[in-house]
Predict the structure.
Amino acid sequence: MDNALKTVNELLDAAVETLEADEHPLVHTDRGCQCRWPGWIERMDDAKSIRSMSKEGCSPDNSACGGFFGRLKNEMFYNRNWFGVSIEELCAQLDDYIHWCNEKRIKMSLGGRSPLEHRRSLGLVS
């Protein structure tokens, strides 16, 4: 098994271990070979998670994800000394950042609202 496939499988296994019995998240990927491998599909099925893939030749999904992770790295990760920060502390800071992005950060493309406020205005969440 090549290193990329091994890493993807280990990350998925570790993520699945953190789920509660009633949690079955949607996992969106590109069409990378690791995410089409039968072992990956079996792991996803065993976890009762929903697989989602970008359409072939359709990059908007990937660009939105890439843009988010680029902003995350620029705003939260780069220009900071992470030496001595535990995995738990990093995860807590990532969680805080993601909550801020979804709940507080305004986006002009959403009429000056946060993504959560926008979804509420559409009646998608309470």
Remarks:
- Residues 60-121 form one domain.
- The radius of gyration is 17 Å.
- The first strand starts at residue 26 and ends at 29.
